[in-house]
Amino acid sequence: MPLKSKPKRRSGCPVSISLEKFGDRWSLLIIRDLMVRGLRTFKEFQESGEGIATNILADRLKKLEAAGIICSEVEETDGRRMNYRLTKKGIDLAPVMLELLIWGARHEQTGAHCAIMAKMEENRAAILAEVRRRWQERDSTPLIPKFGDLNLGRT
Amino acid sequence: MPLKSKPKRRSGCPVSISLEKFGDRWSLLIIRDLMVRGLRTFKEFQESGEGIATNILADRLKKLEAAGIICSEVEETDGRRMNYRLTKKGIDLAPVMLELLIWGARHEQTGAHCAIMAKMEENRAAILAEVRRRWQERDSTPLIPKFGDLNLGRT
DNA sequence: CAACTAACTTGCATATTGCAAGTGATATTT
DNA sequence: AAATATCACTTGCAATATGCAAGTTAGTTG
Prior knowledge:
Two copies of one chain form a homodimer.
Chain A: H1 14-22, H2 27-36, H3 42-46, H4 54-66, E1 70-74, E2 82-86, H5 88-91, H6 94-107, H7 114-122, H8 124-136
Antiparallel strand pairs in A: 1-2
Chain A binds a DNA duplex through helix 3 and helix 4.
């Protein structure tokens, strides 16, 4: 079981240690889906549009849970379904995610609308507050349904 | 030459696209070293303390340059030496880096001092301004020499 | 010009990923 | 109640990426 088999910490730098937890091609996409798209289940992540393989998805969910970034519980109304959710530690990645989003939208060809991005840069604090509110109230209606289509305040 | 051989974009999401550029275990560490540790050359990165292999380092430098995040030029005083430097696009990753640093320091066992981290959280804007100033003025004295040992304002 | 150094390459063993198919535990349908 | 479907994974295997040690090349120093 290749889970925590490599405890060799590269350095004491917080950036380095953070990257050991979620510095790969997939982890942050799962976190994004939990944070702003309202996805909760294995199947939903799988069909999220990024094309992650099921074995990798299972592995990342396991690692993120081991790292205390997400947690999981069986859905009451359906015993097969697992519901994943960000922990406090996980939702605290919101600022990282937001800055990543802003950088990408500014410097790469993306599917995000300029006007919306401008608004996000102006209102970082408001957006972060909204993300945290949704997390706390378990409000899983998507904040950013796919990409570029933000619903914040009045649409 | 495995450089831009995989142009399959996973989705139009800015986060996803950003991760395609530097979402691996090493790229952000190189960027960190350029941004706050004042490292410039291949050898310095290699001896940076994280233990990156030379082939991987060469590959990442090539990719980051291809992505427009860093640039390189031959040192005038020594023709063998290449000097790497962040571009504007690269220095714009400072907010991502800072949030990554803050998250890691808060949620993981790291070598960072609490008092300093508290200060960083309070003064995000000032720190970012300082990082940008150093970049603009090509001031490469390290802002964070190793880890946990910050020099900001008066020591 | 001989020794040295910086920045890479190369070869090869190992680890990680992607893909397709399969499994087992519920749930739903007939 | 039996058959079928769904969900969350596993497994096997080929392809890719990584880690490590040992070159190679070009420029520099003595």
